[in-house]
Amino acid sequence: MNNDFLEINISEVLPHRAPFLMVDKINTINDAEVTTQFFIKESSIFNDNGFFAEAGLIEHAAQTCSCIVGKSFYDNKSTVRLIGFISAIKKVTIYSLPKVNTTITSKANLISRFDADDYSLCNIECTISQDHKELVSCNLNLIIREIN
Questions:
Q1: 54, 43 in Cβ contact below 8 A?
Q2: Each residue's pLDDT tens digit in the chain (148 positions)?
Q3: Which Pfam families does the protein's record reference (predicted)?
Q4: Are 72 and 89 in contact (CB under 8 A)?
Q5: Which residue, of 36, 75, 82, 101, has the greatest Cβ tally within 10 A?
Q6: What is the predicted pLDDT for the residue at 84?
């Protein structure tokens, strides 16, 4: 993996902002894969009785996956605004929910991508783990679109 982007600003790859931003740090990134981290705060909108809810895990996975495609939009333009959608959840397996006040790590791999003038369609696999224990595996289709 290319580690040249370790200090990348999250707002340069994802359009999300607090309280809906579910990625704190990009550890590694290139055109085909990314690893991210997220510290689950007690104030998270997905805090469900001390655990990070399933919907939060899926949103975190989608944001992790979006980093790969989002990076390419920002690489080619100095200023760009993006919006992203989960167009399909092809598969998701949730083995365990992480507790709040802990950190999760995710790895996503680009499976396929179709680029048009101002949007990309992609299929991405993602795993979320904590302390080397797999919590989630999923396969998502995303649409990432440039907006004016």
A1: no
A2: 444 445 566 766 776 667 888 999 999 999 999 999 999 999 999 999 999 999 999 999 999 999 998 887 766 665 667 788 899 999 999 999 999 999 999 999 999 999 998 889 999 999 999 999 999 999 999 998 888 7
A3: ApeP-like
A4: no
A5: 36
A6: 85
Q: Where are the alpha helices (DSSP H) in 40-123?
A: 54-76
Q: H or E stretch including 133?
A: strand 133-147
Task: Identify the CATH homologous superfamily for domain 10-147.
Answer: Hotdog Thioesterase (3.10.129.10)
Whether the Cβ atoms of residue 9 and residue 74 lie closer than 8 Å to each other: no
Q: What residues contact residue 7 under an 8 Å CB cut-off, 6+ apart?
A: none
Give the bridge partners for 140, in sequence order: 89, 124
Residue 32: CB atoms within 10 A of its CB come to: 14
Residue found under tokens 């605004």: 81
Q: Where are the domains of the chain?
A: 10-147
Please give the single-letter amino acid code of residue 3.
N
For residue 97, the 8-state DSSP code is P
**How far apart, in Å, are the Cα atoms of 7 and each of 4, 11, 24, 88?**
8, 12, 11, 31
